[in-house]
């Protein structure tokens, strides 16, 4: 699929300068989508909720909307959020090309996955970003994101990219001196992606990147 000059101008001039920790991984996501032929299906949990909040939440729904509108007339984006306020705000930020649904994300993904499969479709990008994370007490958020992944499982192929936001590397260190930190175990995916990473390792999915966001293929 040819790159859309219109989308990449938008990304490079309006989004990238403000995306902070998400810039390099979101760039990788859209570069990958450009390699796919035909319409693409993007499914997101946790919608954009504040205009211009690029560094804060990444404005991913806005970016996905811009991408599919510049790509073709048939690609689709579905996003879900349990907050009615967030859903109402998101609908003001994106075009009708994005289906914005107020629902529990796990239940929604289970239903959407069945609908997609029944019409011969699958998910090309599953972007998980619901349930705000506490990086110290990460478990509730991490469990929720693992539930989301498994709920969507029947619409995920071995080529589907699964990306989890707020999932930076984490590790344990000792400090031999003021200027030195020594890791005592390998880095692992943290935050929202901690349990998705465990599952990915168990089923042999490939880790594509792990910066502030983590991404895999091969589920």
Q: Uncertain spans, ≥5 residues at pLDDT below 50?
A: none
Strand fraction band?
A: 15-25%
Report the sheet with the most strands, covering strand number, pairing sense and barrel closure. 7 strands, mixed
CATH class: Alpha Beta
Q: What is the mean predicted local confidence, pLDDT?
A: 96
Q: Tell me the number of strands.
A: 11
Q: Which quaternary structure do these chains form?
A: single chain
Q: What general outline do the C-alpha atoms trace?
A: globular
| Total domain units | 1
Secondary-structure content class: alpha/beta
CATH architecture: 3-Layer(aba) Sandwich
Query: Could you tell me the radius of gyration in angstroms?
Result: 17 Å
Q: What is the CATH superfamily classification?
A: Vaccinia Virus protein VP39
CATH topology: Rossmann fold
List the helices and strands in order.
HHEHHEHEHEHEEEEEHEE
Number of helices: 8
The percentage helix is: 25-40%
For the termini, the CA-CA separation is 24 Å
Widest sheet: strand ordering: 3-2-1-4-5-11-10
């Amino acid at each position: 699929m040819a790159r859309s000059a219109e989308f990449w101008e938008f990304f490079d001039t309006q989004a990238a300068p403000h995306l902070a920790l998400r810039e390099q991984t979101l760039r990788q996501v859209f570069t990958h989508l450009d390699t796919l032929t035909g319409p693409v299906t993007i499914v997101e949990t946790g919608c954009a909720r504040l205009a211009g909040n690029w560094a804060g939440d990444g404005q991913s729904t806005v970016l996905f909307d811009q991408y599919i509108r510049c790509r073709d007339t048939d690609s689709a984006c579905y996003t879900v959020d349990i907050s009615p306020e967030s859903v109402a705000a998101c609908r003001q930020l994106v075009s009708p090309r994005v289906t914005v649904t107020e629902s529990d994300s796990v239940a929604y993904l289970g239903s959407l996955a069945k609908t997609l499969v029944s019409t011969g479709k699958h998910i090309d990008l599953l972007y998980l970003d619901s349930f705000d994370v506490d990086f110290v007490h990460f478990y509730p958020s991490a469990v929720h994101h693992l539930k989301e992944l498994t709920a969507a499982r029947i619409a995920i192929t071995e080529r589907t990219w699964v990306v989890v936001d707020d999932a930076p590397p984490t590790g344990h260190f000792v400090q031999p001196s003021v200027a030195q930190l020594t890791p005592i175990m390998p880095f692992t995916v943290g935050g929202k992606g901690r349990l998705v990473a465990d599952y990915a390792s168990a089923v042999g999915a490939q880790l594509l990147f792990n910066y502030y966001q983590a991404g895999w293929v091969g589920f």
